[in-house]
Amino acid sequence: FTKPVLAGTNVVITAGGTQEAIDPVRFIGNRSSGKMGIALANVAADMGAHVTLISTVHDPISSPNIEEVHVSTAIEMQKKLEEVFAINDVLVMAAAVSDFRPIHKADQKIKKNNDQDLYTIKLQKNPDILKEISRQKTNQFVVGFAAETENLIPYAQKKLYEKNVDMILANDVSKAGSGFNTDTNEITVIQRDKEPVTWPLMSKNDVASKFWEFYENNIKK
Ligand code: PMT
């Protein structure tokens, strides 16, 4: 049992990896399982928040405080987020968004041609959802993640400023037990004008609890 300290707080969380269709059976995707975003949604819901979870994967232990919206592509995720952003107090963007999508989706399964060893798929840049939604910020506390394989802190700090967000939860996805499709994560918290703080490796559920406790104690008005 958790005290409903976030009752009256509306949060929107994105989770999972976007899938950008190449043809009816193939897509460009990534290794995100949705576990990090779903943990953030479940802990916020336990603390009494109303949660909109915009996710590419289904949350099997969803609470009545969670309104789950299923999306596949970055464009669908952006559209749904734009619908709900204004009525929320917090956005946490835990989804792994594909930076590119195929320009064309083939109507039928692409056939391999025996004379052809190379096949080219032209990609088009996807919108930077976090950067664009941050332009519509009024009072929202906006949190992004940074998934890096090197230079964790400088790259994450760059994202904090370029995407104009309030906080970045940076994870070194090359470290064992951290990042994609694991039950644990090691997070470095990046904020404006503050020294980065690294939390020890812990379960994604504990990361979520630590984040929402931080929000409740330091940010919530
Ligand atoms: O789902 P899990 O298996 O539990 O794994 C968790 C995770 C590794 C996916 C998660 O902890 C994480 O790091 N999520 C962000 C992944 C990512 O896309 O990071 P990025 O550094 O490429 O992007 C930075 C931020 O911008 C992210 O908040 C991302 O959601 C956002 N973004 C990125 C690209 C884009 N076109 N639009 C965006 O909004």
TrEMBL record:
Signal peptide bounds: none
Domain DNA/pantothenate metabolism flavoprotein C-terminal: residue ranges: 6-213
Sites where the protein binds CTP: 99, 109, 127-130, 145, 159, 163
Catalytic activity: (R)-4'-phosphopantothenate + L-cysteine + CTP = N-[(R)-4-phosphopantothenoyl]-L-cysteine + CMP + diphosphate + H(+); N-[(R)-4-phosphopantothenoyl]-L-cysteine + H(+) = (R)-4'-phosphopantetheine + CO2
Molecular function terms from GO: phosphopantothenate--cysteine ligase activity; phosphopantothenoylcysteine decarboxylase activity
Keyword Cell membrane appears in the UniProt entry: no
Entry note: cofactor: Binds 1 FMN per subunit.
Cofactor: FMN; Mg(2+)
UniProt EC number: 4.1.1.36, 6.3.2.5
Keywords, sorted A to Z: Decarboxylase, Flavoprotein, FMN, Ligase, Lyase, Magnesium, Metal-binding, Multifunctional enzyme
Similarity annotation: In the C-terminal section; belongs to the PPC synthetase family. In the N-terminal section; belongs to the HFCD (homo-oligomeric flavin containing Cys decarboxylase) superfamily.
Function of the molecule: Catalyzes two sequential steps in the biosynthesis of coenzyme A. In the first step cysteine is conjugated to 4'-phosphopantothenate to form 4-phosphopantothenoylcysteine. In the second step the latter compound is decarboxylated to form 4'-phosphopantotheine.
Protein name: Coenzyme A biosynthesis bifunctional protein CoaBC
Species whose genome carries this gene: Companilactobacillus baiquanensis
Gene: coaBC
